Amino acid sequence: MSLVQTWEYGEAKQQTTSWQVERGFLQKGKERVGMAQSLVRPLPFGLGGLAWINRAPIGFGKLNNLAQDTSRYLSALVYYYTKERGYYLRIAPPLEVGEINTVDIEKAGLKVGNDLGWASAKLNLSPSLDDIRLQLNRKWRGHLNRAKRSGMIIRSGYEAEKFNLFLSAHERAIKDKDFKTTVTPQFLSAMQDLLPPQRKMLVINAHMGTQHVGSILLAYYGESAEYLAGNTSSIGRKCGAGQLLLWHGIKLLKENGIINLDVSGQDPVKTPQGILTFKQGLNAKPYRLVNTVFSEDSRLANRLIGWRVNQALKLELS
Fold first, then answer.
1. Tens digits of per-residue pLDDT, 278-288?
2. CATH code of the domain in which 156 resides
3. Which of 110, 131, 180, 204 is in Cβ range 3.0-4.6 Å of 127 for a Cys bridge?
């Protein structure tokens, strides 16, 4: 499971963007064997549309053959979206590089795109805190030690006041750095409202005296968590606020029984160098998912959507 396949994520996307959300089960006979949450943009008059499926299909239980079973699930999605409804379909399968080959993808009626799959890293929280700390990059650990001596105060929780303080700092960071993100304040606010009390996103704020100098947001799903967003002021960066915030988060996650922390984007190609260096300091296990795959048919509207999507991807990668 991943955060982007949770019900709350889909609902928040639908509330704050032009995407509509669809959810469906994959069945073998009468047995449900998998599921997928899709984001769609239908064209008027039944002319098809665009469907985007991120980190799905998800199979239920243990798969007999990961590549072949996933290929069958992908084939069912191609049939439903492209053959039955005329949609241009793009999928980011939840498989790491090497877990499925081009032959199995093409059997499903899909083509492999040129854009690299999602890359991130997962930190195993099962070891003791001392062992996790020893695993940290030496320089990262040095920043953490300096932050502990700085007099910085850490406040964490799920209350609206703490969350709103994070949102204000997050919005300010987006404007100051002029960067594009799908994790907008509006989206985060909608998702937090939708989450049940036991799964509210955890906010951790850092203060130097009366000044707010940094904050992070952690999201839960199952036994995993994701470092969804973070920000630091210039004072916070000098004091090592990022390291202290994340270390405090690791301790709280362990206390709550979480066993994996995804750093939410650690891509040597796409992640900005400063953020990449910070996340690499955890020495978490890196992974990359397979390239996105797509299906299209001969209908003009379908091919035009595919062309627009590919142009957007070329611009992103240039």
1. 999 999 999 99
2. 3.40.630.30
3. 131
The answer to whether residues 215 and 261 belong to one domain is yes
Q: Which residues contact 9 (CB under 8 A, 6 or more apart)?
A: 3, 37, 191
Could you give phi then psi for residue 257, rounded to 5 degrees?
80, 15
Tally of domains in the chain: 2
Range of the domain at 216: 120-287
pLDDT tens track for 163-206 = 999 999 999 999 988 878 889 999 999 999 999 999 999 999 99
143 and 94 in a common domain = no
Tokens standing for 264?
């939410």
Residue 39 burial by CB count (10 A; 0-12/13-18/19+): exposed, middle or buried? buried
The reply to whether the predicted model has a pTM over 0.85 is yes
Distance CA 248, CA 169 (A): 19
- CB under 8 Å to 76, separation ≥6 — which residues? 26, 57
